[in-house]
DNA sequence: GCAGAAATCTGCGTGCGCGCAAACTTGCGT
DNA sequence: ACGCAAGTTTGCGCGCACGCAGATTTCTGC
């Protein structure tokens, strides 16, 4: 929940260094254990023990059992989406900047954690946590949109960011739904290639709102 | 979560009748106890005991402790919003129908539970649960919008409904924020009169998207 | 270096959410 | 009227989330 130090490693150093280390250890341990045994057969005590910390400490980093597993695949996608929106050249419109940035980030991150994604699509509790990560992009996205809108009403940026995040959530829900049904029916892996198209199609209805805000 | 019987009291009757009775008893007990003592000094066991059911039964009706308290003021606003959208004459545009229906429902319901609202604005956990009720309007709103759009793409209706719900959530968050700060600073009750204006202003950026979907 | 301040880790206790299976209630067919 | 099927309630147990306060580690000023 704290992205202020991701760039310049602010703050004295040894503290934040250890903090990030244990956070990463918890992430890795959670994902590894979830893949080895089923996701249901892993308690927070196991994760904490594998990471070498107290069970109580786990909840100082993640507020739910699923967050650690989901964090491994979701990562800091939120901040990268915002950065991607801001990095688009000024020539392209707001709608294209936002939509393409989101599509890029959500398709690029699929390759590394493909096995983890398959795991997430299986268990409903994990799917819910994964879908819940979309709300995390709201704040960074708000600032990115506000930066592109210039001196406009900051309320508008916030509403648009929330709407975009909601649309992304809808796309993910539908993608997971069709994915699991495909798995059940065909028995093959996920057709991740359709995610970009689905995102574009789902975000399309918001284009008029984004265009109108630009004036 | 089950709105199929709200109109015609379908299903044999005695079962659903008792079900609604205990649900209402739980709601009332939760709100009463929360008002008497502080909201933090009421356990689910107390609510269940006051309603005359087992503590386990409570979680058959509400999946969290706050839901019962919030449900008292939130009620079945979801279904009524959808009905209000559908009831607007065909002459008015989709944007006006949606926005005015929402404004109506969110202002009309404020009067009865004014004291409860003040309670909710105080405790952060309750505010979160109250804000969370906005996602409940997504499904009914989707069908209402789809009905007005006619034979258009059902995806569009879903995205628009999700965006509208997100915007409502943003408005509620901001309203609660300014409300609590006003209370802290001035020490007076909430300026509920500004909610309609805030809703209208927050939903305004989505007008172009709603208008465009209508064609 | 060295105290004092600040942040973090940890054990403990409480309450909550929920799966499970047994008792009980209600509805329906005959 | 009666018995079976379906639905609901309840007790039980497990694991999770978190506040609290003490111990421990890290940072800062001197």
What is this structure's SSE topology?
Two copies of one chain form a homodimer.
Chain A: H1 14-36, H2 44-51, H3 55-61, H4 65-74, H5 77-87, H6 94-108, H7 114-122, H8 124-132, H9 138-149, H10 154-186, H11 195-203, H12 207-213
Chain A binds a DNA duplex (30 and 30 nucleotides) through helix 1 and helix 3.
Write structural notes for this entry.
- The structure is a homodimer of 215-residue chains.
- With 215 residues, chain A is mostly helical.
- The first copy, chain A, folds into two domains: 58 residues, Orthogonal Bundle (Arc Repressor Mutant, subunit A), CATH 1.10.10; 139 residues, Tetracycline Repressor, domain 2 (Orthogonal Bundle).
- Helix content of chain A is 71%, strand content 0%.
- Chain A has twelve helices and no strands.
- In chain A, α1 packs across α4 and α4 crosses α8.
- The longest helix of chain A has 33 residues.
- The two termini of chain A are 33 Å apart.
- The relative contact order of chain A is 0.11.
- The interface between A and B is medium-sized, with 24 and 24 residues.
- Chain A binds a DNA duplex (30 and 30 nucleotides) through α1 and α3.
